[in-house]
Design a protein that fits this description.
The structure is a homodimer. Chain A is globular, with a radius of gyration of 22 Å. The longest helix of chain A is centred in the middle third of the chain and has 23 residues. In chain A, helix 2 links the parallel strand 3 and strand 4. By secondary structure, the first copy, chain A, is an alpha+beta fold. In chain A, helix 1 crosses helix 2 and helix 2 packs parallel to helix 3. The interface between A and B is large, with 60 and 60 residues.
Amino acid sequence: MIKIPGFLGSAVSSGVKKKGKKDLALIYSEVPAKAAGVFTTNIVKAPPVILGMDRIKSGFCQAVLVNSGVANAFTGKLGLKDSIVSSKDVADQLGIAESLVIPSSTGVIGGRLPLDKMKKAMPKLVKELREDGFLDFADGIKTTDAFPKYAVKQISIGKKKGTIAVIGKGAGMIAPNMATMLAYILTDFNVEKRALSKVLRNTVKDSFNKIIVDGDTSTNDTVLILANGKLGNSTIKESGAEYKKFEKTVLEVATEVAEMIVQDGEGATKVAKIIVKGARTEKDADKIARTLGTSLLVKTAFFGEDPNWGRIVAAAGRAGVNFNPNKIDLFFDDHKVLSNSKKVMDEKKAQSVLKKPKFEVTLNIKTGKSSSFVIASDITFEYVKINSHYRT
Amino acid sequence: MIKIPGFLGSAVSSGVKKKGKKDLALIYSEVPAKAAGVFTTNIVKAPPVILGMDRIKSGFCQAVLVNSGVANAFTGKLGLKDSIVSSKDVADQLGIAESLVIPSSTGVIGGRLPLDKMKKAMPKLVKELREDGFLDFADGIKTTDAFPKYAVKQISIGKKKGTIAVIGKGAGMIAPNMATMLAYILTDFNVEKRALSKVLRNTVKDSFNKIIVDGDTSTNDTVLILANGKLGNSTIKESGAEYKKFEKTVLEVATEVAEMIVQDGEGATKVAKIIVKGARTEKDADKIARTLGTSLLVKTAFFGEDPNWGRIVAAAGRAGVNFNPNKIDLFFDDHKVLSNSKKVMDEKKAQSVLKKPKFEVTLNIKTGKSSSFVIASDITFEYVKINSHYRT
């Protein structure tokens, strides 16, 4: 059960999704929470993202309104007005300033928000707000997600024990019609504004920005962090041991949810952590890791549980990073596959690693001391099925 | 029937491929031909590529030896020695200098060349050289290719009528175990060395470098042009009307073969020409076109014959090129889908375009006057099947 002191959650069905499934969800903080956000880098930004980027500048947020089923993306000025209207509707119901509401939308690109349905559902949405309403919230923001995604951890900083929770959704970077990665980090710790932005930046870099399902980037991606200070701890500042402990825990909880998104990647059967070591710079390591994590040939080999090291080496070679191809080491978990580019793999052992639902691939290019990683899914028949809407 | 005066071709079975399929192929020019080559940009270069890059520096080539089934990639110094030995074997049989032989290999990464089998097969390979042996050659260089790929055209430059032929192979940029794009451009025109390099560079840029099956780049990709001058025309120089006519025709013939490679892309059912117009620079247009041509969501939508313009717009937005997302036009063939980012698509008409095996997608971002394109396949169940070696 996820409870974060001072936060309430809820979700209801507004009638956009079929069969009475929940499609409108709300986070409410009893007091305006200090807040920071990161948003999609896609230049085609959906109106709720444009509005959220503007509103987060105040550094405060008291409510997050999420609708699933319609992305309100590529809807222009009318779409922006729709986001403003729906967040005003919920602000009125909550009795707070509309500028403290940040909206997110996820679903079909090109469709307008169902304002009437949303407005009708809002009194119930607000009435159902509960301390233990975050499972409903996690359910209400799903689109093609097979399961709701959340993680929570309590830690003591000084003498106060606080809570850090992450609730997210996503099953493809962009799903066919159902889209977007969303994640909300909620905590009752009291955190300085600049510290909060820094935690968010660092956390997203090493969690949500490391996951690859299909390599596409949504028009609606949003990650928010809200700290309501309800715990009454002495403010966590931008550095020091308390900051480090806080950031470390936020990253841990966010990583749990990020891995869930890969595990639930459209059609995915594998979660592979691809680690690149021995690069001159972290950027170089990242380039190779991302090339491997998006290579169709690598991802289909994972699906086939095929220890096809040739594809890994060939994909690394086209990443645009210089290294000596005669000196690399490659591991599947701790089983050595290549030693100074010589094959030392035991076929059966290598295969038994790839048969697991979760494994690590480690490539050492031995040109420096930097490393990076991505967490990637495989590409399967089911992926093609989900995304082709195959019409026979 | 492909005949190019002064060139002979052949192919035989050396026993590497099963069922007596041809796996060793040879091009021979009666005289040393002026030659130029372009090779894979992958830093993991197979030994035959390393050897070819060195030998082409002389500007001459008299024989091309291709083996299919084993890529001789990632085989280090021993692999380089193998390429040298096998090209010396064929040079001895032909009675020419070994430096005039350029080898290509395509097939499994990591395996050594079957030198003994190749040596045994060489007398027959040389004996079978014929003016009409290029269908055999096209067949002998296949790996996962479903059909042999070649195109030929005759043109008159001045009073002389010459021949330009292109023979190629490839079905995935890198296929799982069977790899590589290879293409050989043969002509009896007499062409100056620098002009030949320029023609090759320009041609590859607008033909073979525009095709996208899976976005991977092989360790063995090679395109060679050989001009043996047998026609006796006055030398084609680096500029002027004759040069232009020659280059135009080479590009036409190469484009035919490049499109065949996409058509035969692993599991492909569609050949989509994706054109991006109205960019500030050709590089910007190219970036967007490549992002669309490699986007899994765009490629699976093509497979599903789904006029999912949202995915196209979203993929364009993450290409790293600035444009106004409220001002774009989009066409499927000549059917307008978006006009200044407003949907004007007729669902049925749009779908009827995507039902065709070959169609154009044109995106106008209206920020400048430059354009570019790619030719891309779709991603299908069959693609996943071929590349996952699905083990049930």
